[in-house]
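User: Structure please.
Assistant: Input sequence and predicted structure:
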Amino acid sequence: MQGDLTSMFKPYRPDVIQGNFVSREMAAELKPGMTKDQVQAILGTPLLQTVFNQNRWEYVFSLRQGYHAPIVRRFTVYFDKDGKMLRADGDPLPSEQEFVAQINTLRDGGKKPKSLTEAQLKAEIAAAQKQREQVAKPTAAASQPGDLTLYAPPAEIARLQQQTASPAAAASAAD
């Protein structure tokens, strides 16, 4: 029976996001002939840049959500000897919306994500902000000042009372 119960409970595994996410929209902005600085402005700093091949930048992104299989995407940008972009290729890239929907689907246990228009999204944000403003804020401190109750052995309490009653006596008792 105990083996059955322990197999039901698993420790929490946090989401782990590593690397640079490259979306389809970001890749579409890249054009042959761009400088390394222009590419970096669009995609960010590459995760991998080898000393042996300075003209190849690797963008690797991985997402591990709990016990789901990790999602890994690779995208490579190639430059010529003058630092101008030649081409870029890699795994099929999701759009930003598709990727967020994929994350939410995994997080929500496979339920189909809610699809909203821009107006619906703004209305939901406004409603959430209004609801947050209506939450009653505390008017007083959570705890009120009062006497401190001290729990200690009687000998320790007596020693502390002596120290507060006469500091000179406490100093001589310490010697």
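The chain has a mean pLDDT of 78.
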